[in-house]
Amino acid sequence: ADTMKIGITQNNVGVDSYQTTYEKAFIAAAEANPDIETVVLDAGGDVARQIAQMEDLIQQEVDSIIIWPTNGEAVIPAVRKAHNADIPVIVTNSNIAEQGFDFVASFSGPDNITQGSRSAEIMCDKFKASGIEDEARIVQISGQPGYTTAIERAKGFEDRLPEVCPNVTLVETQPGDWNREKSQKVMEAFLVKYDDIDGVYSGDDNMGVGALNAAKAAGRDGIIFVGATNFSVGYEAMERGEYWGSIYQSPVDDAEAALQTAVDVLSGKDVPFLNYFDTPKITQDNMGEFDKPVF
Amino acid sequence: MAPGTLSTFLKRGAIWGFILFELVFFTIAGEFLSLSDKAFMDLDNMLLLFKQSAPIGIIAMGMTIIMINGNIDLSVGAIYAISAIVLLGSMTWPMFAGLGDWVIPLSWALALLTGAMLGALNGLIVWKTGVDAFIVTLGSMLGYRGLVFMYNGEQPTSHLNWTLVDFAEAQFLGLHTPTWFLLAATAAIWFLMNRTVHGRNAYAIGNNREAAVNAGIRVGPHMMINFVIIGFLAALSAVVFYSESGSVNPNDGELYELWVITAVVLGGTKLTGGAGSILSTFGGVLAIQLLRKGLAHIGADTSTVNLVIGLILVAVLFLDRQLNIKGKEELRL
Amino acid sequence: MSEQTPALRLEGIVKTFPGVRALDNVSFSVMPGEVHALMGENGAGKSTLMKVLGGIHQPDAGQIIVGEQPVVMALPLEAKAKGIVFIHQELSLAGELSVAENIYLGELPRKRLGLVDWATLYAQTDAILERLKVGFDARTRVGDLSIANQQMVEIARALTVDAKAVIFDEPTASLTDAEKVVLFDVIASLQAQGVGIIYISHRMEEIFKITDRISVLRDGQFRGTLKTAETTEEDVTQLMIGRKLDLSRAASDHELGDVALEVRDLSCGKLFNDASFTVRYGEVVGFYGLIGAGRTEIAETLFGLRDPSGGHILLDGQETRIQSPADAISKGISLVPEDRKEQGLVLGMNCRDNMTLPQVDDLKAGPFVAEGAEIAIFDQYRDKLDIRTPGWRQIVGNLSGGNQQKIVIGKWLSMRPKVLIVDEPTRGIDVGSKSEIHNLIRELAAQGYAVIVISSEMPEVLHVSDRIIAMYGGRITRTFGADEVTEDSLIQAISGISHAAEPQPQAS
Amino acid sequence: MIGFTVANERFLDPDNVMGVIRSSAILGVMALGVTFVVISGNLDLSVGSMMSFSTIVVLDLHDKIGPALAIPAMFAMTLCLGALIGFLVGYLRLNSLIVTLGMLSAIHGLTLTYSGGKNMDIADKEGTWFGVFGQGDAMGIPIPILLFVLLAALLGAVLSKTPFGRKVYAVGGNGVAATFSGIRRARLVFCCYLISSFCVATAGLIQASRSLGSQNTVGQGLELEVLAAVILGGASLMGGAGTIFKTVIGVLILGFIQNGLLLVGLQFYVQYVVTWIIIILAVWLDIAAKRGKLWSPIA
Ligand SMILES: Nc1ncnc2c1ncn2[C@@H]1O[C@H](COP(=O)(O)OP(=O)(O)OP(=O)(O)O)[C@@H](O)[C@H]1O
Ligand SMILES: Nc1ncnc2c1ncn2[C@@H]1O[C@H](COP(=O)(O)OP(=O)(O)OP(=O)(O)O)[C@@H](O)[C@H]1O
Ligand SMILES: [Mg+2]
Ligand SMILES: [Mg+2]
């Protein structure tokens, strides 16, 4: 068969190691397959640039486009253009809005809402185990304002928590911008402000570890830290027993799933429209089952 | 011909030389590195180049006059986002419900008005308080961004109107709608700066503010007008872009100020004010978009793109400097 | 004249700045068709008074009467509207704009829709430039003009409106004799049109040539008005500085030492060619020439600011290359530059810091700057040069023009160089201080310094120099000894018509 | 300030005040260097990205060659970057805004290449003494504060008392006149960028030591905050004005605003708006006091 030319436009590669690892894994997976050639682009978080990249990929007549949307709705017209040019589009990591489903071949990625719910469950289970499920007070450090992933995780968490632990109060939420240092500052202020914090939920482990550092520096023990996207720092903190749990999500799986979906679509296989890969809970109890994350 | 337009055009030729270099380089490199069978200089690709330059380019025109005037505006990215929110948000407001597609011009007007007013607010503060524009707009970059988030929290504001999308994607005489707006903005601003009293006074103010004051030029209103114009253009850029894309994230437009300023300075406008040319800014905008496109064309990865963009900026400056050296007789300062 | 109403009248004007009472109850008036000189030492308050008149400063007390009406002018714009045109002491131009736009700055002719009426603008400008007999046209970028020509642009502004009164604040400070003639013609024609003219200058010969009356300010106070025809230089000076001037040439005859500086066939591109001359210890060499003659460029080359394209520089008989000003300073060369605002001073810095700037590296106590030593230097030269300032902490930008110039001179004198080059040293300096500076230059020579004086004022060159080098078009045309020089031969030498033997400079 | 105290009584709690100063230390140290650059009439927008670089490099080298060697190695590498910028701006006379903007991007690329895009963490966090710079105490004062204060005192003295400092003001105030006064402008600007990069390296050290692990974007966006602090302190973008002391004030104002707003617990976007208002009011009142008039005299 001819080689397949697959273009990908990622959201914002430089911003965290998840996305960088994703990019590397994607390139590695593509190189491993002699039938695939790829153009790997990064939108740098800018919708306008991403749309321009879509147009460029269409103009370069690639066979398929994978997009990690910077904005699940803004890219729909660009996706439609690809669709009209008979280029199948695969959405990766975070989905586009429903209006655009008609123009998309498949979505491949994690389910961020479910991730948020699962974090709530991890946190609640731990409170129950410690017997404080009726009085616990928690704070949330969310991801960068405006990012779908940040929004969905927060939503999943906030919706699920009252269902499983109705008496736990979420006292305040502030964004940590996916940034460990920023999150540490936010947590420092929380610690000054609230004498009683039993749990911290952060949108990813990077921020979670920042919060953990703040708590350690202030000498506040006994706080339950739960995150998402288990980074290696988070994994290590769990090994040390300082950090309770997270969601295991591998950018390598994410990247390989997206590429495989594209290949499947191009070779005419039937693929499910929503192609979630599993992102299980990871806590100090079961972490032995998981490899340490590479990022 | 307005004074010096042609000669400054030639003197600031570095940017056009650089564009030429980019074209040649990416064409040749593309032969070896690109996956695509299409040439880099393919007509469609060049048409896309203009279209894709529009969001930054339209704002850059406003930034040029602000900088010629001796000020700077760091809040354009935030104004861009607010205007986009007003544009898309207002289309779904219940009070406009019965209007059908007539809501479009209304929303456009509202968005443009918003931009102009936010610009006016900046201008008014700069004028009346005497605080440096850098600080005022650094502040409003943050403050306006706060307003963006107030409208819809962290949620994107969306309204996909296919009539609008079709209009924005249309091509007239081969050029895309955004290209037309970019060209119109460029022409209008060129005319303003080279043909009108306001434009010439703006140059004088940026060049030697004391002299302008002594000559009886009212500095405040001129600055204010320019801030209104850049606000308007930031909104116009948003209107053009979001008509097509239909959804705005609250952090859209972040870092636009830096890209815009880069384009303007690449075009030879002085940060200290008083000198600058609209056409060269146009060149600066094209050069940046060409660079992004070219690097994508040859498939450079993220770290390379960052590295190369940075080094190229420095290289262009260096080239420009070499071109402008008057010779060995020059004073060594 | 006396029964007419004055074009302009000032009554009891008071203006204070922090630490300075710049104007203290000043009253005077200007008749239509009169050229009225305003004189006073540096810092006496002349510019301040005119700025009050021009709407740039607001008086603390007193009133301004134009025609019959008392007026309040909150803005320069309003002064202009009242027919008061102000030609500034410091150039007030936008260098990036064209000559025409600068002349009509703030009042560009308009068409509909706020468009500039370029045709009218250029036509009017060309007419004005015609009258001024200058060699540039309306479309030239002002930044490309020499200082003298920029000054002419400034002067051209006086001709743009139907003025009631025109204020010239030291217009000739950076003009050479050729342009002065033109300026005086302009003033005469304004006078003929019945415009009242206020003329500020430190040059007595001009004052006596063109003015009708002279008003004198001293330390911000009005000292009286004299009829020019009925007074003498001595009287005016007496009124200004409160004593008589000693104009005799001090300490002129002393032994000359060895050759300090020798320049052989020095060239720099098209700026100047094959310049050869020597300066001996104890000698003052004057450079005289028209604008663009290349005197400044030679000085800049000697100071390491330009790369010579050929020739040799010998200091104490040793051939040297001067790489940079720092290098020049370390080799004992100092330059008092011609443009004090751009080249001489950091306007936002205080007086002391400006004065000690070139030697701040040497004034150390441990790792720090020795403030005591600095203040000592400042005090020494403040007294020596009679610098008027409330104290060393004053920001230089707030000093009067002449006092700024003195700071620059003090800065380089305090370096105690071997070779001191002064470029237009007395530009904007009052008569008293001027003769002090002349004496100082002579004194320095007597102490054994080698001094080069570049000046566009013939009396000055004649007064201070042991030898005079005349330049024309980038070439040295002739060298005069103090005894052989006459005004006529000097004028011939600088206009390229002297000495058939000298090679004629190529037109460039 | 009063508002914050009323809104949350813990604002003036010594622990909180100490905390704010400590977390401002990183920003503050960088601002010290940028003050030199700004006074000399230039800009430095690369400090954030350079700080990420320093942090990543020292963390990486920590495990490879040990902290004792890693620290000087990181300083050397950061100073090289500073020297490069200094060369471009000082000797080649390129526009500093664009050069440093370009370097912002280029150094980010360099960092990504260096780290392979991964987070960088010290493997044995318990067993290293490296944490002392960010977490340690000396005589009850946190080391970051101590470093900040020492560096501020040192650089403050350099700027206000030494010939070098005097020349920085001169070059920023009027570069041409400074050259005419025999100041080697290129060398001086070069030195300012070296100082700036030294400060950045120190900030990177504190940052790395504080969290013993970090990400490629740790310094992202700090350049504007640093600049805001410097300007808030009264330095002029035109050069020639500003002091280290005022910069420290600017840093603290910014730090306390951020902390105060967090303590009040406003929505983050309300914080944005309030920060905007406070910054403009602060600068406005400052210059209004200087000119003795509330409204600007601009016609
Ligand atoms: N803006 C200002 N702030 C403070 N002091 C000032 C200011 N402007 C002028 N002065 C002071 O007012 C006094 C009068 O200055 P002015 O410029 O009027 O002198 P002048 O007579 O024009 O002198 P020159 O012949 O040197 O030009 C001086 O002592 C000067 O230092
Ligand atoms: N014929 C000319 N062609 C080009 N440029 C000229 C010409 N005449 C004068 N200039 C410009 O005018 C400037 C002033 O000349 P310069 O400073 O050498 O004169 P000068 O002899 O020092 O006289 P002064 O210092 O009294 O003005 C020169 O640097 C040059 O740029
Ligand atoms: Mg004066
Ligand atoms: Mg000269």
From TrEMBL, chain B:
InterPro entries: ABC_transp_permease. It is a multi-pass membrane protein. The keyword Nucleus does not apply. Keywords: Cell inner membrane, Cell membrane, Membrane, Transmembrane, Transmembrane helix, Transport. The keyword Transport applies. The chain crosses the membrane at residues 15-35, 47-68, 74-96, 108-127, 133-151, 172-193, 223-243, 255-288, 294-319. It comes from the Bacteria. It is found in: Cell membrane. It holds the Pfam family BPD_transp_2. Its main location: membrane. The complex is composed of two ATP-binding proteins (LsrA), two transmembrane proteins (LsrC and LsrD) and a solute-binding protein (LsrB). Part of the ABC transporter complex LsrABCD involved in autoinducer 2 (AI-2) import. Probably responsible for the translocation of the substrate across the membrane. This is Autoinducer 2 import system permease protein LsrD.
Automatic annotation (TrEMBL), chain C:
Transmembrane segments: none annotated. Keywords: ATP-binding, Cell membrane, Membrane, Nucleotide-binding, Repeat, Sugar transport, Translocase, Transport. Residues 8-244, 254-498 form the ABC transporter domain. One of its GO terms (molecular function) is ATP binding. InterPro entries: AAA+_ATPase, ABC_carbohydrate_import_ATPase, ABC_transporter-like_ATP-bd, ABC_transporter-like_CS, P-loop_NTPase. The keyword Nuclease does not apply. It comes from the Bacteria. Gene3D superfamilies: P-loop containing nucleotide triphosphate hydrolases. Pfam families: ABC_tran. PANTHER family: CARBOHYDRATE TRANSPORT ATP-BINDING PROTEIN MG119-RELATED, D-ALLOSE IMPORT ATP-BINDING PROTEIN ALSA-RELATED. This is Sugar ABC transporter ATP-binding protein. It comes from Tritonibacter scottomollicae (Epibacterium scottomollicae).
TrEMBL record, chain D:
The chain crosses the membrane at residues 20-39, 69-91, 97-117, 138-159, 186-206, 226-257, 269-289. It comes from the Bacteria. The keyword Membrane applies. Pfam families: BPD_transp_2 (PF02653). InterPro entries: ABC_transp_permease. It is found in: Cell membrane. It is a multi-pass membrane protein. The keyword Lipid metabolism does not apply. Keywords: Cell inner membrane, Cell membrane, Membrane, Transmembrane, Transmembrane helix, Transport. PANTHER family: ABC TRANSPORTER PERMEASE PROTEIN YPHD-RELATED, ABC TRANSPORTER PERMEASE PROTEIN YPHD-RELATED-RELATED. This is ABC transporter permease. It comes from Tritonibacter scottomollicae (Epibacterium scottomollicae). The lineage of its organism: Bacteria, Pseudomonadati, Pseudomonadota, Alphaproteobacteria, Rhodobacterales.
